[in-house]
Amino acid sequence: MIFKSSGELTDPRLVGYRSLGFGENINLETKKFELSINLSEIPEHFLKQANNFIQQCKEDDKQQEFADIPELEQLCYPDYSSMLEYHPALAATLIKDYLYFDLLNSIFPNSENLKLVINSIQSITIVDSSLIISGETFPFQLVKKNK
User: Fold this and answer.
1) SS3 of 13, please?
2) For 8-48, how does the pLDDT look when each residue is reduced to its tens digit (9 = 90+)?
3) 3 vs 51, 63, 147, CA distance in Å?
4) pTM value?
5) Which of 60, 76, 83, 133 has its CA 20 to 30 A from that of 5?
6) Angle of helix 44-64 relative to helix 100-107, nearest 10 degrees?
7) How far apart are alpha carbons 51 and 82 in whole angstroms?
8) For residue 124, how many C-alpha atoms fall within 13 Å in the half-sphere facing its CB?
């Protein structure tokens, strides 16, 4: 896994993500980031969550007799690992539209001693054997509470 903020390598263990207000404008200076993950490095925990999401889509589509994500229905609801290999654009779209918090939580479970916080995601692509995510970060700052 390679994480770069403004072109500089950053230890992924020092990166977190903003769970509340994700993607909203903030009054802090932001920097562009790019995260590159080899597909073989995607955490198993995330793959299980993605498969659960796909299975839930299948059940919901059957109940409502309408596919919310027609591409999943057309492909007969494949498992996510197969989708990464054979349908990478759809795999990336599912992360971008539905599974980004699941992925971020799987990759960045640390919430202590952070240096950067991911504020938003602009793009997610799969190129060759890498998942590439780009967006904006801001420096981690502890909020001091008044007593």
Assistant:
1) helix
2) 999 999 998 877 666 667 777 889 999 999 999 999 999 99
3) 26, 41, 37
4) 0.85
5) 83
6) 160
7) 10
8) 21
